[in-house]
Amino acid sequence: MVDTSPPQALKTEERSTFRVAMDSDFVYRFKNSPVAIVATAVVMLMVLCAVFAPLIAPHNPFDPSSLNLMNGFSAPMTPNAFTGDTFWLGTDDQGRDVFSTILYGMRISLFVGAAAVLFAMVLGVTLGLIAGYVGGWTETIIMRIADVQLTFPAILVAMLIFGVAKGITPVEYRDQMAIWVLIIAIGLSDWVQFARVVRGATLVEKNKEYVQAARLIGRGSGAIMLRHILPNVLSPVLVIATISLALAIIAEATLSFLGVGAPPTQPSLGTLIRIGQGFLFSGEWWILLFPAVTLLVLALSVNLLGDWLRDALNPRLR
């Protein structure tokens, strides 16, 4: 019989690699930071709830056949006077379960936030690498555009881009393209900080010996930027991306609250807050409160995680 088990030396090497990773300074800081542990647990829980919303949600709030208008304005954990149904977080004016709408709304908010940050990161890192490595007029043009954009609030830039993009989109496709237009608008309003950080780090890295050695052996500019400089400037980029995720989620909620974000057919947390705000002073407080608290907890957890990551990756604090 042939022994197909891996050699003992390979098993030992795998265990030692895992042990080195677990004993690293990064993991040690994480294990000794209650704030980071709690924030990570909350973010992971909310992400899992959003991803598996169809399996977790008691109802599908966007299926008209499953709605009963007689359940409208049901208070949390209180049987409805007409149907006798009880909902954990109550219902809205259309009889939709607020808990289910929050789960589905988180999917839109997280997707838009993550996609917008990814788009901004790719665009900003690319332009920052080019500006820092090439220099000259290329750097001047890129950084002057970034400086001009920084003079305007990001939310106003996002609203302007969203309005222009929505205006050139055919009417019959506006609701279908609204989410993607929102992602592009937030991403284009947030690329500047990635570009500025990467450009500064590239100016430092391109004069080091390993870059000069790569030039001597005939490496092209693109290969040097991607294979040599980029891996050495990713640490601050990851920190900025984590913090920007919370800002992107808030920006999406703000745009949706103002009525220029997610469409009513695909409501996000911001849309739910806008809907609940209309019933706040009539006594149906739960329609606004629970989506607002969810948004607050999500943004705060991501922000705390980003702050810890910034400190953990800062060599001056080690």
TrEMBL record:
Cellular component GO terms held in the UniProt record: plasma membrane
Domain of life: Bacteria
Alphabetized SUPFAM superfamilies for the sequence: MetI-like (SSF161098)
Main localization (coarse): membrane
Bilayer disposition of the protein: Multi-pass membrane protein
A Gene Ontology biological process term: transmembrane transport
Subcellular location: Cell membrane
Assigned keywords, A-Z: Cell membrane, Membrane, Transmembrane, Transmembrane helix, Transport
Domain ABC transmembrane type-1: residue ranges: 106-306
Transmembrane intervals: 35-57, 108-134, 146-165, 177-198, 229-251, 285-309
InterPro entries: BP-dependent_transpt_permease, MetI-like, MetI-like_sf, OppC_N
Similarity comment text for this entry: Belongs to the binding-protein-dependent transport system permease family.
Name of the featured protein: ABC transporter permease
